[in-house]
Amino acid sequence: MQKKKVRKAVIPAAGFGTRLFPATKVVKKELFPIIDKDGRAKPVILAIIEEAITAGIEEVAIVVQPEDKKTFKTLFKRPPKAELFEKLSPQNQEYSKYLVDLGDRITILIQDKQEGYGHAVYSAKDWVKDEPFLLMLGDHIYKSNIDKSCASQVLDVYEQVNQNVVGLTTMPAELLHKLGCVTGVWEEDTILSVTQISEKPSIEYARQHLHVEGMADDEFLCIFGLYALTPTIFDCLAEDIKNNVRLKGEFQLTTCLDKLQKKERMSGYVVNGKCFDTGLPDAYLQTMIDFRNL
């Protein structure tokens, strides 16, 4: 397989945010504020994009609902009105210009129908074209434990193995009903040759089929929320969409990742860092407390 650099990132942000209702009636969950280490209040989506850019990503696509396109364009493509801009501090005026410059690298794509996370990813097919790409969740932010960012770690592994990479983290059995779970065979200390991916498995199924050698009995490898994928994932998604293969009424990504690892090789990488899920009330609250200080 010819080696191609990962230049593009896709961030689906077209969900309704039911778990954060009623706040999400008026504010997209991807626009909820977090306080960064510099003390600046940023929308979650900005922290995700900055993670991608610092990892060497050149172009970013955000997948949104049609009615939300204007909101995201206002954030990244348009400066404040002149009278509002003048009220900003000099530092914030500079930051406003930075956002508009950042917007030159951002494309806003539309998911016409809200039919699941997999369908949202598929909406980026024509934009991605025939390149590998970084896939990032729209409501997850990351904090590395080392100097290299979480996204950079995943992309470095992609460069090393030249095949699909899914970021992983260790989770206890009692949380599996919320997560995608991965099993396989260790190639190196932190790199796994993936043999199966299961969406929200039962504990009984996981114990029987998904345990990884060397891990504690009730600990499992789960999806971290960062993926470096080849465009073959779109073939897998297209197959599910054509055949109307849904889970809980929606087209899922995880089932297609399992198809992808059967078609092409896939590595799992245990990311040296922490993932913050801002799509749940308690998790969002904890992110507000922890993210700035870690």
From TrEMBL:
The question of whether Nucleotidyltransferase is a record keyword is answered with yes
Q: Which key words are in the record? A: Nucleotidyltransferase, Transferase
In Pfam terms, one family for this protein is: NTP_transferase
Q: Which reaction does it catalyse?
A: alpha-D-glucose 1-phosphate + UTP + H(+) = UDP-alpha-D-glucose + diphosphate
Q: Which SUPFAM superfamilies match?
A: Nucleotide-diphospho-sugar transferases
The Nucleotidyl transferase domain is annotated at 8-288
Q: Name one process (GO BP) from the record.
A: UDP-alpha-D-glucose metabolic process
Q: Which GO terms describe its molecular function?
A: UTP:glucose-1-phosphate uridylyltransferase activity
Gene3D superfamilies, alphabetically?
Answer: Spore Coat Polysaccharide Biosynthesis Protein SpsA, Chain A (3.90.550.10)
Task: Tell me which EC number(s) this protein carries.
Answer: 2.7.7.9
What is stated as this protein's family in its record?
A: Belongs to the UDPGP type 2 family.
Q: What is this protein called?
A: UTP--glucose-1-phosphate uridylyltransferase
Instruction: Give the species.
Output: Hassallia byssoidea VB512170
